Amino acid sequence: MTTTLPRTLEAWVEEQTELLQPDGIVWVDGSRAQLNGLLRAMVDSGQLTQLNPEHRPYSFLARSDPDDVARVESRTFVCSKNEADAGPTNNWREPTELKAEMTELFRGAMRGRTLYVVPFSMGPVGGPLSRIGVQLTDSPYVVASMSIMTRVGDDVLSRIAAGDSWVPALHSVGAPLEPGQQDVAWPSNPTKYIAHFPESREIWSFGSAYGGNAILAKKSFALRIASVMARDEGWLAEHMLLIRVTDPGGRRFHIAAAFPSACGKTNFAMLRSTIPGWTVETLGDDITWIARGDDGRLRAINPEAGFFGVAPGTGPATNPTAVDTIWGNTIFTNVALREDGDVWWEGLTDTAPKGLTDWQGRPWNPAAGPAAHPNARFTVPASQCPSIAPDWDDPAGVPLDAILFGGRRASNVPLVAQARDWQHGVFLGATIASERTAAAEGTVGELRRDPFAMLPFCGYNMADYFGHWLELGESLGAEAPAIFQVNWFRKGSDGSFLWPGFGENGRVLTWIIQRITGEIGAADTPVGLVPTPNTIDHLAAGVSARDWEALFDLDVNSLLDEADDTERFLDGFGERLPAEVRAQLADLRRRLETRLGVEAASLQRAVA
Ligand code: GTP
Ligand code: SPV
Ligand code: MN
After folding, report:
1. What's the average model confidence in pLDDT over 197-216?
2. Contact status, residue 457 vs residue 228, Cβ threshold 8 Å
3. Dihedral of the CA atoms 75, 463, 575, 591 (nearest 10)?
4. 370: phi > 0 → left, psi -120 to 50 → alpha, else beta; which?
5. Where does residue 220 fall: left (phi above 0), alpha (psi -120 to 50 degrees), or beta otherwise?
6. Beta carbons of 136 and 118 less than 8 angstroms apart
7. Residue 337 is inside which H or E element, if any?
8. Does residue 217 line the site of ligand 2, with CB under 6 A?
9. 288 in helix, strand or coil?
10. Predicted pLDDT of residue 7
11. What are phi and psi of 223, to 5 degrees?
12. Strands, DSSP E only, in 126-165?
């Protein structure tokens, strides 16, 4: 195998077929008939369970291998030629070496299986911001998921025939079948590799069938490879939701928000504001591509066509829009099965129905763990979302007014703060920390840095990525969107959330928009500009004056400790870290120390 790109699609497929040795090849054409046939075959073979159509029409349950339930960051690699170009936050392997090793894994890997060729477009086919790829896979589950999550089929082939460049994405579950061997419901391999070759724009994935490891159009293409394309071409590929907000006067605003995995993007994207007269329309819930338009402003599209959303915690009280979205045409993965053939998960209803089968197919024993896996997911077309904007798939995208960064922080980070300017906003994004969730392997709850919510998804050195953001801001000048930091997850001394979240986040959104329009002022603090009294009606949200204060409490000593930790984190990038990021940290420390001096002086006065 060579490291150069294949000349033509046909030649590439032929070359891979020789290596993978599948029993047959199917070109996925994007037709409903072909997809239905595939789903039916998976039900017949036991790979999918069809749900009771009276409750959940055209819907299916997949149960994964219990060892294949989330992204495996420890097995995800960015294989740039030079290790320094992958940066300290990515796993790296020398590309030629890893390709040689993986070629041996791929050799004969599809024996006894069908090879599916899946041509896909991220963004509307042919759109100015859209990009295309072709995934080879031996997992019909992945084909069905790709068919929901992306635009798949023959019109993509026409673009390739017309000369559009495309990204080859090779995937195998790595479980060849010997003649007569019985297949399992979820084939996978204990050896896993999710490898990215940024210079040649290639993706090789082996051993997993789970979403982010296997639906290669999503995190592998639309973030890791696309972030490299974006760096080279002057745009952004981000782990962000995208919404349109309309105020009572009919003015429209577009907002993108980056929160780490399982930290509220899908929920915020489907927000039903509790403030009358304010409406939110959904444009995207996970990935946003952003580029400068002809007018010099940033424009954004959602490159996906579906949602791969977290099921647990999704219920009528938290996200009624998602509940309505998944009425049918949905593939559920690792949720619990009800006696009546419908699905269930923790948070869907307050009490669990009787007679549940858990995500591993066993009668549910509450003492043994949750009925649904904490990272159980639904895969559903975006078009089914009741709050989807009618023009959500406009290839030209929407003009961007504000960018939000957030994470799960029990302490230190206020409910909302506006960045002082673009550079400060980049600093906030670069230094985001968040408690780990079930979306990837690791210890849930442990605090880790997740800059721009892109730590697992940036295809190059994140120091250069910060630099790319800074440069873009400079070129935008006054047209740069405002930047904010939010935190729905701050906890009080009793360990419970101080802020009710979900629909009440609409109050924070309204404040953000009133800041953009300049309608209201803000209070200057060391960490940014925060709401002045009575600009957010916290009592209407059920938050006491004391809790409201706690949501914005500045523990200066603790923040100075965190600044030390930030310095250690930034030091990890060495020489490549843009000087501006360091300057921002120095500014933060100076503001905190000034504040500490003021506090000490007032304490002294009080004592005297
Ligand atoms: P990925 O798809 O992994 O990128 O995640 P996401 O950012 O889209 O996360 P999602 O919206 O699915 O939320 C994950 C979890 O966070 C769910 O269990 C939600 O119930 C919970 N959550 C979302 N918004 C809020 C909020 O405002 N407050 C609280 N307390 N929990 C929230
Ligand atoms: C995430 O983990 O951020 C997801 C799910 O959105 S996955 O597609 O598996 O990456
Ligand atoms: Mn995500």
Report:
1. 98
2. no
3. -130
4. beta
5. alpha
6. yes
7. strand 336-337
8. no
9. strand
10. 66
11. -115, -60
12. 131-137, 151-152
pLDDT on residue 227: 99
Contact call for residues 364 and 358 (beta carbons, < 8 A) = yes
Q: What is the pLDDT of residues 97-115, one digit of tens each?
A: 999 999 999 999 999 999 9
Kindly state the tokens that stand for 170: 């090779």
Q: Which helix (H) or strand (E) holds 454?
A: none
Domains of the chain and any CATH numbers? 7-47+72-234 (3.40.449.10), 238-303+392-554 (3.90.228.20), 306-384 (2.170.8.10)
Question: Is the overall model pTM greater than 0.85, yes or no?
Answer: yes
Whether the CB of 308 sits within 6 Å of ligand 2: yes
Of 591, 555, 407, 421, whose CA–CA distance to 485 is shortest?
Answer: 407
Q: What is the per-residue burial (b if ≥16 Cβ within 10 Å, else e) of 561-586?
A: ebbeebeebbeebeeebbebbeebbe
Closest ligand 2 atom number to CA of residue 215: 8
Q: Cα separation of 428 and 527, whole Å?
A: 9
439 CB within 6 A, ligand 2 = yes
CA gap 106, 110 in Å, rounded: 8
Q: Please tell me the number of Cα atoms within 13 Å of 69 on its side-chain side.
A: 18
- As a whole number of Å, the end-to-end CA separation of the chain is 79
Residue 232 alpha carbon to ligand 2 centre in Å: 25
Residue with tokens 């090879």: 115
Cα-trace Rg, the chain: 24
* Res 513 pLDDT > 90: yes
CA–CA separation, 578 and 470 (whole Å): 9
Which of the ligands is closest to the CA of residue 259?
1
263 is catalytic: yes
Q: 139, exposed or middle or buried, with CB in 10 Å at 0-12, 13-18, 19+? A: buried
Which tokens in the block code for residue 38?
């595939």
Distance (Å) from CA 332 to ligand 2 centroid = 14
Answer whether 314's CB lies under 8 Å from 424's CB.
no
- In this predicted model, what pLDDT tens digit does every residue of 411-462 receive, in sequence order? 999 999 999 999 999 999 999 999 999 999 988 989 999 999 999 999 999 9
Residues with CB under 6 A from ligand 1: 259, 261-267, 285-286, 309-310, 312-313, 318, 439, 488-489, 497, 501-502, 505
Q: Give the 3-state secondary structure of residue 299.
A: strand
Percent of the chain past pLDDT 70, that is, above it, reads: 99
Q: Which residues are paired to 363 by β-bridges?
A: 357
Within 13 Å of residue 165, how many CA atoms lie on the same side as its CB? Answer: 7
Could you tell me the two tokens for 552? 């914005």
**Is the pLDDT assigned to residue 3 strictly greater than 70?**
no
d(CA 257, CA 402): 8
Q: Atom 7 (ligand 2): residue with closest C-alpha?
A: 212
